[in-house]
Specification:
five-stranded mixed sheet; 10 strands; alpha/beta
Length: 213
């Protein structure tokens, strides 16, 4: 797995698709997936379709939305099999700090616009990705990760002292969706060992876990 050099550069735009444009890869890709956690400025707009024509290689593309913090995890789950056989798959996760419209549902907005691109290499796709309904066994699920490094999103920060791992990294809680991926980008992947990225969406009651390595 590799992260784009400018993955942490804040991006702004009038739609999530426009926000994603600065994060598009320079080289051609096979699969491009856009994930966002709050409905787009024009609900139903085919944001990933118009992204395709500005992305090198005209890749297959789709978007995952309305899944809260689970959106990027859901996208990874859908990409997992494809990324194992195609070396050029890219996931872009974006979130906006202000919405010039009423999304129609309760939402938690981040403190800043943020976008991040994850490049999934064919030789290092996620070894597992799960999105499951909330349960009383959240801590048990995290204990069974067998990961050297665990990245916890804001929804799981309270469990940091109970997670069994050599290193626990807390994501910025002010970035509900992109925080865990920004924390992942800050790791030295050569020395972090097996990495688990986990978060919990209290509104939608999803427990999300992605394991790399």
């Amino acid at each position: 797995m590799a992260l784009a050099p400018d993955a942490l550069t804040p991006v702004r735009g009038q739609s999530y698709g426009e926000m994603a444009v600065p994060l598009l890869p320079v080289d051609p890709v096979d699969l491009l997936v856009l994930a966002y956690d709050v409905p787009d400025i024009s609900p139903g707009r085919a944001v990933s379709t118009y992204l395709t024509h500005v992305c090198p290689g005209s890749p297959m593309s789709f978007a995952v939305s309305d899944q809260g913090r689970a959106a990027a995890f859901m996208a990874l789950s859908l990409m997992q099999t494809y990324a194992a056989t195609h070396p050029r798959a890219v996931l872009i996760a974006v979130e906006q700090a202000d919405l010039p419209y009423d999304p129609g549902v309760p939402v938690t907005l981040p403190v800043a616009h943020a976008g991040i691109a994850l490049h999934l290499a064919a030789d290092a796709p996620p070894s597992s990705v799960t999105v499951t309904p909330d349960s009383d066994a959240v801590l048990d699920s995290l204990d069974g990760l067998d990961a050297a490094t665990v990245v916890l999103g804001g929804g799981l920060a309270g469990l940091a002292d109970d997670v069994k791992a050599d290193r626990v990294v807390l994501a910025d809680p002010a970035q509900p969706m992109t925080g865990v991926w920004e924390a992942l980008a800050g790791l030295d992947l050569a020395t972090a060992g097996r990495i688990a990225v986990a978060d919990h969406d209290p509104a939608l009651r999803y427990l999300c876990v992605a394991v790399f390595g």
